[in-house]
Each structure stands twice: as C-alpha cells, then as structure tokens.
# Entry
Amino acid sequence: MPTLTSLTLYPLKSCAGLPLTRATVEPLGLQHDRRWMAVRPDGSFLTGREFPALVRVRAVPGAKGLHLSAPDMPDLEVPLPPADAPRLDVTVWDDTCSAARVRAEADRWLSDYLGQPALLVHVDARMQRPVDPKYATPEDQVGFADAFPLLLLSEASLADLNQRLPRSVPMARFRPNLVVDGCAPFAEDGWKRLRIGAVELAVVKPCARCVFTTVDPETARRDPQNEPLRTLTTYRRLGPKKLVMFGQNVIVRRPGELRVGDAVELLE
# Structure
C-alpha cells in the first residue's frame, strides 16, 4: 500500500517550502498553504516564474501572522490583517478575487527584495475563489494556489524522470504538498479518490508544468539547459492540448489531520 512520505507547506505563493511531519487539512488545502501572495499594485500576481528570487523567501506562519526572511533582508513580522482591512481585487491566472491588504511595511519589504513595486495580500474569511467548476462542486474553494487546493506527486514518478535527466533534480522543483511512495511511476495518473488517515481527497486533474520547474530552489537560478522541463516534454505531453503534465491536482473531500507515514488508501 502506498504511504505518505512528505508534507510541504508554501505559506506565501512561490516561497520556499516548509517541510512538515503533520498538517491540518482544510477545504482550502493544508492549513496556511498559499494564503499570502505578492502582487503588483494593479493586483496581478507575482510568482517565481517571473521572479525566481521568491523561492528564497522563507515565510513561516503563526497564530498572529507571518514571519518573513530572505537573503540580505531584515526579518519582518507581518500581522494578520483585521476584519476591516482595505481590500484589493487580485488576479491569479483567469480568476479575480477580493483579497485583504496588509501593512505598508510588508509592501516595502517585498518591493525592496524584488526590486519592483509589490504589495502583500492575504486570503481572509471574506475572500471567495471557486475552483474551476469543470472539476469541482460549486462549494469548492481555493486560496492563492494556481488552481486547486493540493498538489500530489509520487516518488516513483520523480525517480523515473531522474533516470532520464543528465543530472537529478529534487522533489522541491515541483512544489507538491503531498508526496507518496510505494506505487509504480505515474500510478497517480489513474487515481480518482484517496483516503489518507481520516482525510478523503479527490484527484481531479493532472498538473501542467511550466518554466518554474527549471528554477533551483536553493539558488533561485534557472537551469541553463531548461531541465527538467526539456526532458518532460519528450514523454509527458498529455491530453488534447498536449501540455506537459507531472503530478496531480487534488480537492479536499473530508478535512482532517495528516501525518508523514500515513497509509494511502485508493478508494477509486
């Protein structure tokens, strides 16, 4: 039976991953996951695809807000915005939603680090961003993740890729929340429903990959050979649009607690 071997949290979209041994799963995904995001003043989102330096920001959530640190930057404590915080319409791909603004100090910190005007926004109780109805129920919501609450990948799939690459890449290149072991390469392509501990999940759509996979999470530098995307294009173009797919997008059907080492039960 497959097992859960890794849990990773990304509190700020495109930031460094925080490994966990246990996590609370909410309808929006892992608690605190991608609940903060950097945007331009017009509300358009900033990610590591355009600004690889974001992968070196360490964002640690707490009960009262977020702790930010990055190379050559002072640490910053960012409090949760109050219920009456100013709002900003922000865009994530084709979605527009109303997010909460935070303190100007956080905007200055991000702007200084990225070298361009940037604002920090937060997913609060008032924000609504439905998941694509082609894959979800009307009640399903997502925070600032690209499109779905969770991303899952198997260790076997990464091992299969690494056998084809001139140099192996770590799982961190693909930024999954959940990593499983004990299955065949790309077995996750055929999964529909899972139970991990008391948590039930729907596996709804393969994850289309982009240039962000070429960014080294340790150095924030892009691979000069465009790997691993270059190799993935040779054997993982799937679906009618022939997009490069690696990993699976997941929706939460029953929230609960997850622990590394939990058995992964295939329900469908």
